[in-house]
Amino acid sequence: MVEKALATFAEKSGLRDTPELTFSGFLAFVRDETDVRPSTERFDWVAEHIFGYRGKISGRTKVEVAYDVCEFFAAKGYETKRDLQALPAGQPFTCTDTGESGELERLVMQGIVNLDGKSPYKVRGMGLALGAYLLMCLGRTDFVKPDTLLLRRVGHIVGRGWQPKSGDEADYLLIRQAISCAAERLGQPAAAVDHALWKYESARS
User: Fold this and answer.
1) pTM value?
2) What DSSP letter does each residue of 129-185 carry, written as one string?
3) Nearest to 64 by CA among 48, 85, 82, 40
4) Shortest CA distance to 145 belongs to which of 134, 153, 157?
5) Are 7 and 71 in contact (CB under 8 A)?
6) pLDDT, tens digit, for every residue of 41-97?
7) Contact 109, 100 (CB under 8 A)
8) Coil, helix or strand for 32?
9) In the chain, count of helices (H) and strands (E)?
10) Other C-beta atoms within 10 Å of 72: how many?
């Protein structure tokens, strides 16, 4: 199962870059070509009729959360995945080092997620797990997503009564370094090992 999951990740991971689809274009579409922020009803309509999914995060449709993320990127002058990938990269985690944040990581984790508590923007609904997942979708394969299934699997592996806490930055950094170390020894990206662990735990649930 693990080998299959790693192969699937290698083939299908990340968001495809489509240069003609821009963050500003998405904002204009959701606004219905007006200059006014969409109403809750408009977000609900787009979620149901365009995306066919009305799932919510922190009481808001995922479309509204995505709108705010795109608005943040566009306001900073970024329009596509390629623009974001061109930002200076940091250093990945290894078995012996916790790496160094790159500009994209700081943009997401400090600007959108507001991990350091200093961002005037902070997108409601974007926590540590979704911030990490966004970075993975943007091509950062050195990240892992600390969602419920991954936390449960890691807690089971470690044992000794320890269970990592959702949204806890210190626990996340420990998990990220542990998975990064395993990935380094396996010759795989950390995100691929994350995906394999998630698939394994998902199949057990």
Assistant:
1) 0.84
2) HHHHHHHHHTT-TT-----HHHHHHHHHHH-TT--PPTT-HHHHHHHHHHHHHHHHH
3) 40
4) 134
5) no
6) 999 999 999 999 988 999 999 999 999 999 999 999 999 999 999 999 888 888 888
7) no
8) coil
9) 10, 2
10) 20
